[in-house]
Amino acid sequence: DGFLQRAQTAVIKSNLNPVWNEELKLSVPQNYGALKVILDSILFTEQQVFDQDVLSSNDMMGEADVDLQPMITAATAFGDPDLLADMQIGKWLQSNDNALIRDSTINIIDGKIKQEVSLKLQNVESGGIDLELEWIPLAQ
Q1: What are the backbone dihedrals phi and psi of residue 75, each rounded to the nearest 5 degrees, phi first?
Q2: Rounded CA gap, 47 and 44, in Å?
Q3: Which residue ranges does the record assign to the C2 domain (predicted)?
Q4: What's the CA angle centered on 9, arms 64 and 37, to 5 degrees?
Q5: Which residues contact 43 (CB under 8 A, 6 or more apart)?
Q6: Each residue's pLDDT tens digit, 11-59
Q7: pLDDT (tens digit per residue) in 59-78
Q8: Do residues 3 and 68 lie in contact, with contact meaning Cβ atoms separated by under 8 Å?
Q9: Coil/strand/helix, residue 138
């Protein structure tokens, strides 16, 4: 309880379909919860003065929760990924209880534990986000 970390990407202005190619690192505490991803729009356009239908200067574009448990379980069960060949070691299944667009596999790729996650954004009309997670043990 009470453990909060924040990481922020660069701001992409005036774009309803932003693309980030950034790496953000967060440590995972012993008593972890879901990773919450929040997207805010920061749009500044001359059109805002005339068009009441555009987003205000800091509207929520959605949020998504990433369950870290499948990745952590897979990572700890298989030990040192450098010693293993490329293979699937886990899966987070799409269900009515999560916002996954499709099943999310956890793989060892070139000695790294990675997970591709595609989520429907919550608290907005529509939208989605694609993330690639990588598990990095504290020893590295």
Answers
A1: -65, -45
A2: 9
A3: 1-82
A4: 10
A5: 13, 14, 54, 55, 57, 59
A6: 777 776 777 777 877 787 777 777 777 766 544 444 334 334 444 445 6
A7: 667 888 899 899 989 988 98
A8: no
A9: coil
